[in-house]
Design a protein that fits this description.
Belongs to the glucosamine/galactosamine-6-phosphate isomerase family. 6-phosphogluconolactonase subfamily. This is 6-phosphogluconolactonase. The chain has 256 residues and is α/β, with parallel strands linked by helices. Strand 2, helix 2 and strand 3 (67-71) form a beta-alpha-beta unit. Helices cover 24% and strands 17% of the residues. The strands form two sheets. Strands 1-9-8-5-2-3 form a six-stranded parallel β-sheet. The chain has a three-stranded antiparallel β-sheet with strand order 4-7-6.
């Protein structure tokens, strides 16, 4: 059994430098994807991540009309609710850039009362975007952007939860999230791990204790450590020095 290649870890002295470098990384991924397929498919998570993407607003060369944005996970609440990942992204990014509204793929608000149907509908949204263009068993995103929780969870994949073992569904419902709100939908590992690029973003002293358990001892099996892109997928971490203070894994200098 082959040993997974360790992720590339970029650590920055402050979040401003991190955000700017992340924007450059995303721009490079965008250029390569549009050159190959004429589009750029991105999936983002919530939390503080949307604010980290605001450095893109001032960058030239962003082809917003070629972006198709999905959510790695979403809270099952109205899209204008304070807990909605879409609302966070709308306020931090979409409202400030010319991305076509039709290119932002949200959950169906009319299905909030039926978690299974909502999950199935979002999976069908992925099928419409990917199945007719790609022949892979799972969708192949150009880039998936993830955060982590202090318990090592990522997306809505939590330690010890049965969804860690889901291998067939693209999108799965969760009604017992240990972090409120309890009802969510989330991408599964097969979708995350089939991406061409996966980038984690983690900042602040609050992440300093959990990061070594993910990066230095992945054998512990925390949810974030189970993200291992298959084939030639690329896994990178953008962290600040406060978050990576206890990490022993060698850090790399950011270069494109």
């Amino acid at each position: 059994m082959s040993v997974p290649t360790p992720p590339v870890v970029y650590s920055f002295s402050d979040t401003s430098k991190l955000s700017d470098s992340l924007a450059e990384y995303i721009l490079k991924a965008q250029r390569e994807s549009i050159d190959k397929r004429g589009r750029f498919t991105v999936a983002i998570s919530g939390g503080s991540l949307p604010k980290t993407l605001t450095a893109l607003i001032s960058k030239s060369g962003v082809k917003w009309d070629k972006w198709h944005v999905f959510y790695v996970d979403e809270r099952v609440v109205p899209l204008d609710h304070e807990d909605s990942n879409h609302k966070l992204a709308q306020e931090a990014l979409y409202s400030k850039v010319p991305i076509p509204p039709g290119n932002i793929h949200t959950i169906d608000e009319t299905l909030l009362d039926d978690l299974e149907e909502l999950s199935d509908a979002y999976e069908k949204e992925l099928i419409r975007e990917f199945a007719q263009k790609d022949s892979a068993r799972f969708p192949v995103f150009d880039l998936i952007l993830l955060g982590i929780g202090p318990d090592g969870h990522t997306a809505s994949l939590f330690p010890g939860h049965e969804l860690l073992l889901e291998h067939d569904r693209w999108v799965a419902p969760i009604e017992d999230s240990p972090k409120p709100p309890p009802r969510r939908v989330t991408f599964t590992y097969p979708v995350i791990n089939h991406a061409t690029r996966v980038a984690f973003v983690a900042t602040g002293e609050g992440k300093a204790q959990i990061l070594p358990n993910i990066l230095d001892t992945p054998e512990l099996g925390l949810p974030a450590a189970r993200v291992r892109p298959v084939a030639h997928g690329q896994l990178v971490w953008f962290v600040d020095d406060a978050a990576s203070a206890e990490v022993k894994l060698q850090k790399s200098e950011f270069k494109l």
